[in-house]
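We treat protein structure as text, and this decision shapes the records that our systems exchange. Because each token names a local backbone shape, the row as a whole describes the fold. An entry from our holdings is shown next, in its original layout:
>
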Amino acid sequence: MTTAAVGGQGIPAMPERTPRALREAIAQHAPQLLPDFDAHWKRDIADAYDIAPVPAFMARWWGEYAIARDPLLEQQVHHLEDEAAEASDIDRAKALLEEAGHLRRQARQVEPGR
């Protein structure tokens, strides 16, 4: 796994797209995610003895890590979600959640090494 800064901003590069490499990156750069990552892995993959859910698992946690490794992006996504939760106008809340969802989808598309 590479830990070179991305774009000179001190954001760690995405790891290889494997569960082990992703877990190592989370442990090193976003340890606050590790308990949930491990619990999810244990419950849905390890204890189930089923590798079928691995692609969905990787998609979810790839995106979570891609956001968590970038403090500004993480702050932006959480701000949008928090603002949507407090919005009294349903259209405003929907627009905020759509924007947050767009950022989350973009995060899941980040390639290894980026």
Notes: The chain has five helices and two strands.
